[in-house]
């Protein structure tokens, strides 16, 4: 974490290969908190402090008893309120993250054939899971060049439409809408891992809105959550009746039954639950999803405007309508050395602005989730300006 405003900046740490290890960003430019990771993301200090209240009462106790079950209840009801779950929708949770939920969905939600929209590394991984499943027909895969998006399109025979609300690797946002003309019983399956809690959504347009809590919800990994419509809940029963062999840890019917008891099938990460509950209740107290979406829009609006005003930078996502408000990707153009810029920033306590590994080195990727103060994003860009000028 960076020094508070007005304090002396820490001496930069030596970084192997750093072309300018002695560059010291003035303390007046540094953000109050220099963490901009896209996942795991910044956790507020108040969340960590809140853990002291349960350190000797809830942590280390049975997850089948009231204290931990109450955390599960607060997580489920809080998420339903934050995301505006319509009547009849249920919040289901289980152990593992979104990566595990892809397997859960393939086993427990897709009847025969899915359509998958691929706009980045994470949406490509879901498409790969659906393709590899031996009990499903090959999915129809719709792809767009990284940095742009493709929308789901209704097709005869497709029973599940899968796409990411926010593609974390590229910073591309896809609106959540049910494809016009889709079969009445088809499911809309939305990966909301980096969107849930930071981007506005109408859950009536989705049947399964699933996510892990280590991004906009400022918690740790290890759990998945899925907000399921009545149509999705009926599909769970329908697919279960097909008799597919499913490991208990990947069973959606078992996860649903456990969730209705305010439990998980096996022992959950209690600290992850506690961090999540504190963040969700903080967001609700601030004004809910509308407040969170306005805050991320302010941060991202500044980042993209800043990049457009520099001759040596540009937003990676060219179309403003496709740009994410929670994960911003910015290309740094020659002769600026993006790797050198990131090294100097890290040496000064401004961290985790690295691009996703498959997208090449000449980029900054900035997490702007609700826990990130827009003033810190403004400070980040001021630091980049300062570093680029010195490296030149």
Automatic annotation (TrEMBL):
Q: Which residues form the Aminotransferase class V domain?
A: 41-350
Record InterPro entries: Aminotrans_V_dom (IPR000192), Pser_aminoTfrase (IPR022278), Pser_aminoTfrase_mycobac (IPR006272), PyrdxlP-dep_Trfase (IPR015424), PyrdxlP-dep_Trfase_major (IPR015421), PyrdxlP-dep_Trfase_small (IPR015422)
Q: Where is this region: Disordered?
A: 1-28
Tell me if Amino-acid biosynthesis is a UniProt keyword of this record.
yes
* Enzyme class label: transferase
The UniProt catalytic activity note for this protein reads: 4-(phosphooxy)-L-threonine + 2-oxoglutarate = (R)-3-hydroxy-2-oxo-4-phosphooxybutanoate + L-glutamate; O-phospho-L-serine + 2-oxoglutarate = 3-phosphooxypyruvate + L-glutamate
Q: Where are the transmembrane segments?
A: none
**Might you give the EC number(s) for this enzyme?**
2.6.1.52
The family annotation for this protein states: Belongs to the class-V pyridoxal-phosphate-dependent aminotransferase family. SerC subfamily.
**Main function:** Catalyzes the reversible conversion of 3-phosphohydroxypyruvate to phosphoserine and of 3-hydroxy-2-oxo-4-phosphonooxybutanoate to phosphohydroxythreonine.
This protein is called what?
phosphoserine transaminase
């Amino acid at each position: 974490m960076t020094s508070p405003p007005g304090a002396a900046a820490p001496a930069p740490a030596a970084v192997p290969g750093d072309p300018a290890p002695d560059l010291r960003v003035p303390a007046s430019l540094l953000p109050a908190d220099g963490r901009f990771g896209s996942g795991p993301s910044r956790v507020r200090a108040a969340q960590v402090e809140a853990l002291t209240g349960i350190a000797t009462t809830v942590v280390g106790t049975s997850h089948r008893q009231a204290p931990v079950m109450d955390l599960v209840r607060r997580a489920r009801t809080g998420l339903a309120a934050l995301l505006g779950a319509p009547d009849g929708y249920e919040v289901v949770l289980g152990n593992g993250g979104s990566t595990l939920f892809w397997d859960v969905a393939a086993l427990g939600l897709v009847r025969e054939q899915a359509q998958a929209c691929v706009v980045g590394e994470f949406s490509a991984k879901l498409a790969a899971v659906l393709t590899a499943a031996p009990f499903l027909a090959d999915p129809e895969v719709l792809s767009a060049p990284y940095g742009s998006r493709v929308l789901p399109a209704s097709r005869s025979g497709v029973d599940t439409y899968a796409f990411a609300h926010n593609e974390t690797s590229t910073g591309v946002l896809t609106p959540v809408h049910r494809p016009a003309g889709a079969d009445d019983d088809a499911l809309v399956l939305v990966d909301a891992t980096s969107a849930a809690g930071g981007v506005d959504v109408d859950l009536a347009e989705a049947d399964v809105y699933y996510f892990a809590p280590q991004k906009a919800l400022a918690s740790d990994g290890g759990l998945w959550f899925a907000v399921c419509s009545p149509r999705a809940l009926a599909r769970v029963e329908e697919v279960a009746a097909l008799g597919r062999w499913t490991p208990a840890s990947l069973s959606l019917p078992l996860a649903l039954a456990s969730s209705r008891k305010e439990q998980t099938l096996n022992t959950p990460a209690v600290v992850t639950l506690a961090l999540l509950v504190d963040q969700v209740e903080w967001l609700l107290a601030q004004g809910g999803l509308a407040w969170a979406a306005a805050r991320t829009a302010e941060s991202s609006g500044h980042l993209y405007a800043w990049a457009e005003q520099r001759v040596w930078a540009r937003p990676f996502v060219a179309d403003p309508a496709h740009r994410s408000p929670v994960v911003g990707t910015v290309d740094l153009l020659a002769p600026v050395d993006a790797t050198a810029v990131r090294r100097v920033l890290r040496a000064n306590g401004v961290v985790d602005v690295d691009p996703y590994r498959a997208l090449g080195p000449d980029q900054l990727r900035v997490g702007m989730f609700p826990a990130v103060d827009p003033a810190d994003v403004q400070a980040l860009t001021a630091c980049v300006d300062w570093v680029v000028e010195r490296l030149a």
